[in-house]
Specification:
Largest sheet: 11 strands, mixed
Helix content: 40-55%
Length: about 775
């Protein structure tokens, strides 16, 4: 499991913030009055007849951080949850939970409109959108997001994102280094906002709801939607990993049975809801009093919310009320509970991950960096490219071919076996061992076959001698019997009338004159079909493996072709600027390498010319000195020697300037190589993200289908989506996640990835 270590220097101690949201009513509620400071609220009490003098209070006043009266969904998120989301991105744990009576608008506040109205979405969809938008902006961070969805129904915990939602599951709340975690709860990793919202909507569809007098879609369970973040710096920044989580809690509403008039199963559900909320209130009271022992374990709900109520978490509560005079008692009860929650304080700290899987990923990244450094060093040293990474199948086959050639050739040299990297050496040793074991097995097989053949020949020889003795005894007995019968027997070898011409004496394969065929004869008593050859069995296995390899290779080729087509479309239509940038960087690198190669060749040519001219000048000077008279000066040279000296000087000047050009080009290669690699890597990374999200699927199916092929429902969906995108371009992910969920009444499967869609599209294309 993940072990997180807090950073004391980054601790954030704060009180739990409480916001009161009032459900809109038909008219102005006299029993619910909000103060001018928008922080205080006065709730009127029902007066009871107590005679002439009544000293009971007329109203109770409460104070909260903010009163949200007739507030929009966007305003609720901005004031209540945006700050918590920012804290979660900074590495702190956060919780936002809604509490109140049934029908007060808790689910509407947290989840939003049950329909498809984008503006009416609740805190959870807005928080997911906010997190992904901030993740895209923070380019210096590599942030991974995953989600989970827990339901507490009748004191049983259910995993709403599991493939099969069943009771009595193995979910259990555990304490890991002071942080509460639900063991075995499914976590779904999300690549984008649409995928996260799709998981949320699928879990919403799987929740337990029912209708009663006060609410047609009353939540019958407590639900906790958790967003898990794992963040690390990219590049040469801090390599520590920070983990955090955001709990978004929709509590079931407290209800009075005499008002809801529920019976049977709904009554049992109401009993469990009120019981768990009572335990929650007792826990809050104990924390506000500062009791040494707080009974968090008395219910599943308090166990799950232990961090949010007084641990490592930044918590916000939204108290939802129904400010109608008929619900004044429930409103006062909610306000009193919210006031006690305001007295709680938490101490949130940044959580650094000590997960071995995170450390392993960190070490893998370090190994990749070292491999790139080795490749760069070989490039600067002018060495041939060496693969320091994992060997591919083609490289393994080539190395195996070279090893076998080395073993089968008598005059082979050890240098024929490549040993350019440690991985290649290890692979060569593995192949040598494989060849040795194959040779040992082949030798053992041949020895066993020879031994078996020898034993068969010995047994056959012994059986032949015994048969010869038996035949001799039978012949003697037959002669004695024929002698006793005399000569009265008819003479001739032809069979009697009606007797088969192919009697027992006919040999196997002899021609049958009557039937124009061959006699089948009688097989020997010890005859048996030949055993299956071991080599044939090996051949069958080899053919099966070859067929499987061919099938996988064909699938890989299809996938490679799809990726190639999608990559070309991506460079052409989706990101032509990035593709042009990568092409320009690659062209600059290629041009620099070509110029360097040309300059090096020029330097080598000039060096050869300098050497030749130097020899010519020296020979001319020696010849001139030999022919010079005694009275002639030594510094006088003839015209031919002078021309050679001038040519030598000019060649040396060209050599120096060209050599400087070579040095300049060599110095520019690392920057050009890095720029080309970075732009190419950025292009490939962006393409991969686009491809994994479903980019290019329209190339695998008929994207030019006529509009007439769509039915009225599909046309309506298209128009609705287009209108929504025109109103708010950021609503695409929301509607993409909603599509396909609203019309279904079944439990929604939560496992359907882009790869499944891509495979389906490929299958449809082949079917066409």
């Amino acid at each position: 499991g993940t072990s997180c270590g807090p950073r004391p220097e980054a601790a954030m101690s704060s009180a739990v913030k409480v916001y009161l949201r009032a459900r809109p009513t038909n008219g102005a509620a006299e029993s619910f009055r909000v103060g001018e400071d928008n922080r205080t609220v006065s709730v009127s009490l029902k007066r009871t007849e107590q005679g002439l003098i009544n000293n009971s209070a007329d109203a109770i006043q409460f104070e909260f951080d903010t009163i949200l009266h007739d507030a929009s969904q966007e305003s609720v998120f901005t004031q209540c949850a945006a700050e918590v989301c920012e804290s979660v991105l900074a590495g702190y744990n956060g919780t936002v939970f809604a509490y109140g009576q049934t029908g007060a608008g808790k689910t509407y506040t947290m989840s939003g409109d049950a329909g498809s109205d984008y503006k009416q979405r609740g805190v959870i969809p807005r928080a997911v959108h906010h997190l992904f938008r901030e993740m895209d902006v923070r380019v210096g961070k590599d942030i991974t997001l995953s989600v989970s969805y827990l339901e507490i129904y009748n004191e049983g915990m259910y995993d709403l994102l599991a493939d099969e939602i069943v009771p009595d599951s193995d979910l259990v709340v555990v304490d890991r280094d002071g942080e509460m975690e639900v063991k075995h709860l499914t976590k779904k990793k999300c690549r984008d906002e649409a995928e996260a919202l799709r998981f949320f909507f699928a879990g919403e569809r799987n929740r337990a709801v029912a209708d009663h007098v006060l609410n047609k879609t009353s939540s019958r369970s407590h639900c906790v939607f958790t967003v898990h973040l794992e963040s690390r710096s990219v590049g040469d920044g801090d390599d520590r990993t920070v983990v955090s989580k955001l709990n978004l809690v929709d509590l079931a509403g407290s209800e009075r049975v005499k008002k809801t008039n529920v019976t049977g199963k709904a009554l049992l559900e109401a009993t469990h809801i009120n019981k768990s909320l009572t335990f929650l209130e007792q826990t809050v009271n104990a924390l506000s009093r500062g009791d040494k022992h707080v009974a968090f374990r008395q219910s599943k709900l308090t166990s799950v919310l232990r961090d949010a109520l007084g641990g490592n978490c930044k918590t916000t509560m939204i108290a939802c009320t129904w400010p109608d005079e008929a619900h004044a008692e429930e409103t006062i009860s909610t306000c009193r509970f919210a006031s006690r929650v305001m007295t709680l304080s938490t101490r949130a700290v940044v959580n650094e991950s000590k997960d071995p899987r995170v450390l392993a990923a960190k070490y893998e990244r370090r190994c990749e960096e070292l491999l790139r450094e080795l490749a760069a060093r070989d490039t600067f040293a002018g060495k041939a490219p060496v693969n320091y990474g994992p060997m591919g199948e083609v490289e393994r086959r080539e190395l195996e071919s070279e090893v076998r050639m080395f073993l089968e050739t008598d005059d082979a040299n050890a240098d024929d076996v490549p040993a350019e990297s440690l991985r290649q050496v290890r692979e060569a040793f593995r192949l040598f061992k494989k060849a040795y074991l194959e040779a040992v097995n082949e030798t053992d097989r041949r020895v066993a076959e020879a031994r078996e053949e020898t034993m068969k020949e010995a047994l056959k020889a012994g059986a032949g001698e015994a048969a010869a003795e038996e035949n001799g005894e039978k012949a003697e007995e037959k002669e004695k019997a024929e002698g006793a019968e005399g000569e009265g027997e008819a003479e001739g070898d032809a069979p009697a009338e009606g007797e088969d011409a192919t009697g027992d004496d006919a040999a196997v394969g002899d021609e049958d004159a009557d039937a124009s065929g061959f006699a089948a004869g009688v097989a020997p008593a010890d005859a048996a079909p030949p055993p299956e050859s071991p080599q044939r069995a090996k051949n069958d296995v080899a053919m099966t493996r070859a067929a499987e390899t061919a099938r996988k290779a064909a699938a890989s080729r299809v996938e490679a072709e799809q990726r190639e087509v999608a990559f070309a479309e991506y460079k052409k239509s989706v990101s032509p600027e990035r593709a042009a940038e990568a092409a320009a960087a690659s062209a600059r690198l290629k041009e620099a390498k070509a110029s360097l190669k040309e300059a090096v060749e020029t330097v080598n040519t000039l060096k050869a010319e300098i050497d030749a001219l130097g020899v010519a000048v020296d020979e001319a000077k020696a010849k001139s000195a030999a022919e010079r008279g005694a009275g002639e000066p030594a510094d006088v040279v003839d015209a031919e020697t002078y021309e050679s000296m001038v040519a030598l000087k000019k060649t040396k000047a060209r050599y120096r300037s060209t050599f400087e050009e070579v040095k300049r080009l060599k110095a520019s290669l690392p920057d050009l190589t890095t720029a080309a690699a970075e732009t190419r890597a950025a292009l490939v990374k962006e393409f991969q993200e686009w491809y994994d999200k479903g980019g290019g699927l329209d190339l695998l199916v008929q994207r030019d289908a006529d509009e007439d092929d769509m039915d009225y429902g599909e046309k309506f969906d298209q128009l609705e989506l287009q209108r929504a995108l025109n109103r708010d371009p950021e609503s695409g992910a929301f509607f993409a996640a909603k599509k396909g969920l609203l019309g279904s009444t079944k439990r929604v499967p939560v496992t359907r990835t882009v790869q499944h869609m891509r495979a389906l599209a490929s299958t449809q294309r082949r079917a066409f």
